[in-house]
Amino acid sequence: MDLTSPGVLDQIEPGILILVGFVLFIIPEPATSALGAGLLLLGASWWVYEWGR
Description:
By secondary structure, the protein is mainly α. The protein is elongated, with a radius of gyration of 13 Å. Helices cover 83% and strands 0% of the residues.
């Protein structure tokens, strides 16, 4: 797997956003939960965009 090719990072980055968003969402603090939910939505929409491309 060559991480320098542009297609590989386009597939990995949405998953990282979803993972970080989930971790922030489960932390019981309202600010981090809101940020986590936002990152989850952003990562999911980015993933769907990349999937349809």
